[in-house]
Design brief:
Oligomer: heterodimer
Helix content of chain A: under 10%
Largest sheet of chain B: 6 strands, mixed
Order of helices and strands of chain A: EEEEEEEEEEE
Radius of gyration of chain B: 13 Å
Distance between the termini of chain A: 37 Å
Strand content of chain A: over 45%
Shape of chain A: globular
Helix content of chain B: under 10%
Number of strands of chain A: 11
Radius of gyration of chain A: 13 Å
Largest sheet of chain A: 7 strands, mixed
């Protein structure tokens, strides 16, 4: 049973470019969460999605960031016009239902040059 | 404002001894607490959790204690093994599905 998969594992973008981060949840999991970790910090919640629905996006920056979890395919976290401050590790987690443990993927390390 | 605090950035213990990692929280709405372990360049791995209706939960070498009145929880690892060396994150949830994480404690278990 494969775990949560994220790709790419490392992503380098120049300022102003777009970054697309993908997350495939564990089999049977329909709840996806995105977190961001800055250096020397804990993980910070960004967004919670179920299939085709954004449930909670209270942690998402108001501009440039968006997320989706389509009926088919992986969840996508999209960052437009990246800036140096977007450099971080982005983790995706999934769970089979609410109020359950969240299982994390290996993360995507985004570097903005 | 930090709702979940891990005040010790690092902890070093000898193999075979007990490791105690501490976590404090400020939000009374939190009703579920989790510990995650993280190796460099990997995602956090779920270790153990506890509901606010309990004060202790045990799983093998790992035990989590919750003191609601003090808003404090701790993770005990006994006996500690070198493979336990990692960063440990305390996380809390309440009123929504999002987890609120502490900054982590780096545990080093010396052989």
């Amino acid at each position: 049973n494969a775990g949560v998969m994220q790709n790419p594992r490392h992503l380098v973008r120049r300022r102003g470019q777009e970054a697309r981060l993908r997350c495939s949840p564990m089999k049977g999991h329909s709840h996806v969460y995105w977190y961001r970790q800055l250096p020397e910090e804990g993980l910070k919640f960004m967004v919670y999605l179920q299939k085709e629905n954004i449930i909670d996006e209270s942690g998402m920056p108001k501009e440039r960031f968006s997320a989706e979890f389509p009926k088919e395919g992986p969840s996508i976290l999209r960052i437009q016009q990246v800036v140096r401050g977007d450099s971080a590790a982005y983790f995706c987690a999934s769970s089979p239902w609410t109020s359950y443990e969240q299982y994390f993927g290996p993360g995507t390390r985004l570097t903005v040059t | 404002d930090q709702q979940v605090k891990q005040n010790s950035p690092s902890l070093s213990v000898q193999e075979g001894r007990i490791s105690i990692l501490n976590c404090d929280y400020t939000n009374s709405m939190f009703d579920y607490f989790l510990w995650y372990k993280k190796y460099p360049a990997e995602g956090p791995t779920f270790l153990i959790s506890i509901s606010s209706i309990k004060d202790k939960n045990e799983d093998g070498r790992f035990t989590v204690f919750l003191n609601k009145s003090a808003k404090h929880l701790s993770l005990h690892i006994v006996p500690s093994q070198p493979g336990d060396s990692a960063v440990y994150f305390c996380a809390a949830r309440g009123g929504s599905e999002k987890l609120v994480f502490g900054k982590g404690t780096k545990l080093t278990v010396n052989p």
